[in-house]
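To whoever is on call:

I kicked off a structure prediction for a single chain this morning and the downstream step that reads the tokens threw a length-mismatch warning. I double-checked the sequence; it's 175 residues and nothing unusual in it as far as I can see. Pasting both halves so you can look.
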Amino acid sequence: METMATIRSRHAIRQYTGAAPSPAAMAQIETALQAAPVAMGAYDHLHATIITDPAMLKAIDDTAARQFGRANMLYGAPVFILLSAKPAHETLGNADYASAGIVVHNMALAATSAGVGCCYIWGAVAALNQEPATVAKLNLPAGFVPCCGLVLGEFAGDYAPREIPSDRIGINRLA
């Protein structure tokens, strides 16, 4: 898929068939993960956890439901890639979240290009961070904190380019 067609086509998929992406699609998504730019080249400050274990997915979903009073915040997707960061200082900062978000976005574009459904996950990760016992089950390297993630799976339908309004986000031009 051509780059701008991918960008115009990408949107959140919140219903999945239950089938995981093909190994070839996952390889493409993992390549996108590795190819993403990271602030100051601090690749060792990011860690990805690919979760396909139904019990772990349910534990994360249950955690989010308790925190937000809303079930199914992983949308029944069979794969969740969680990005965690090792804070450069005492807590996660702007560059930590930005780098994790850029990695997730890179993966979302690769998923869209491959026809794999995807949706950014922030709220369930915020809830996850409130339950250290569940975080401990992720076996993260020492010092890493979950930041954000991407759910993936097959979906009924396809991606199609859409019109993008030119005034969605305000723009100032300084000349």
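Update from on-call: the warning came from a stale cache, not from the record. Cleared it. Sanity check on the structure: The radius of gyration is 17 Å.
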